[in-house]
Specification:
Blueprint: E1 2-6, H1 13-33, E2 41-46, E3 52-53, E4 59-60, E5 64-65, H2 66-72, E6 77-80, H3 88-95, H4 98-112, E7 116-120, H5 123-129, E8 137-138, H6 145-151, E9 156-157, E10 163-166, E11 169-172, H7 177-189, H8 191-201, H9 209-213, H10 216-220, H11 223-234, H12 242-248, H13 253-264, H14 268-286, H15 291-297, H16 303-319
Parallel strand pairs: 1-2, 1-6, 2-5, 6-7, 7-11, 8-9
Antiparallel strand pairs: 3-4, 10-11
């Protein structure tokens, strides 16, 4: 997954840097956890190539313009961090700026192509102003709840949740929710990688109120699902059944199926197929093994079964 982090003049410094740091840490953790987990990368995106000054005066270099991003096809999701605002009035003024108007138009085109979007804190207002949250469930910063509800009555607000995903749009709450948003995106690629990333970032794990307040992702993390992924990756070459996995993890099949459905919005068998297809793709790119040899390494008898696996994995993506 390659995420385009949108940077605009006066954006919230930590909103941009936190997302970039989490995703870069995830990529470093991936090499230690399992190099065959798909990479989670990030590029900075803006209406022009000019470096962008943040609210605190940092200059952020731009990797791609919005136009290049839309045309190139290398970016899977656009993520809008928070705009700096001292209150509702200054936020509304920011939404009317020329560069924000240009971004809203680009986001509408992006969404019309069926591509994914994400935003955090006041960045959710940019999506709402573009009409991209109408009819969806979303969240935003708690102190802007009333103005958001009045300005965008067609959006179902869920301010009790740190991160809300509805269809192709993911939103997150207040400023520190940028961490949770980035972690939730890593977890979609691999819960196992998300756990490793959290361990690398959250060095002090004392259960203080402050730590709980800024790590909503961890409250949603399910160790059983993470362990299930790790068990699958360690057993890809053998025949795998959900019953065997549940037994190895010390749980019941019904519990495992329920927890995977709740956390990943898919079935355990779909997870197995996805990870097998992921490993097969990695072996195709990095080795000279034949299709039959690759099939054996991911638990299939022949190349025909491997081709069927690829078709099934493509269908599973629609479930998630």
């Amino acid at each position: 997954m390659n995420i385009g982090v949108v940077v605009l003049r006066g954006c919230w410094d930590s909103g941009v840097t936190t997302v970039l740091d989490v995703l870069r840490t995830a990529n470093a953790a991936r090499r230690q956890t399992d190099p065959e987990i798909p990479a989670v990368t990030a590029v900075t995106v803006s209406p022009t190539r000019d470096p962008v000054p943040t609210a605190g005066g940092l200059l952020v270099p731009v990797d791609l313009t919005l136009e290049e991003c839309a045309a190139g096809g290398s970016v899977d999701m656009l993520l809008v961090p928070a705009l700096s605002a001292e209150g509702p009035a200054t936020l509304v003024d920011a939404l009317m700026r020329e560069d924000v108007r240009a971004l809203r138009a680009a986001l509408r085109d992006w969404s019309a192509d069926g591509r994914e979007l994400a935003a955090a804190c006041t960045g959710t207002f940019v999506l709402a102003e573009a009409g991209l949250l109408d009819g969806l469930q979303a969240t935003t910063s708690w102190w802007l709840y009333d103005v958001f509800r009045r300005r965008y009555p067609g959006v179902g607000l869920e301010v009790s949740r740190m991160v809300v995903r509805d269809g192709a749009v993911t939103t997150a709450g207040a400023a520190f929710a940028h961490i949770d948003l980035a972690m939730s995106l890593v977890a979609r690629v691999s819960p196992q990688l998300a756990r490793a990333t959290a361990a690398a970032l959250l060095i002090d794990e004392r259960p203080t109120d402050t730590m709980r307040a800024v790590t909503g992702y961890l409250a949603d993390e399910d160790p059983l699902v993470t362990d299930f992924e790790g068990w699958i990756r360690a057993n890809l070459a053998r025949e795998i059944t959900v019953a065997d996995a549940a037994h190895a993890l010390g749980t019941t099949r019904r519990t495992l199926e329920r927890r995977v459905r709740e956390r990943l919005h898919t079935t355990p068998y779909a997870v197995v197929r996805r990870l097998r297809a992921e490993r097969a793709d990695h072996l195709r790119r990095t080795t000279s093994l034949s299709a039959t040899d690759i099939a054996h390494q991911v638990g299939y008898r022949d190349a025909a079964s491997l081709r069927a696996l690829r078709r099934n994995a493509d269908g599973d993506a629609a479930i998630e």
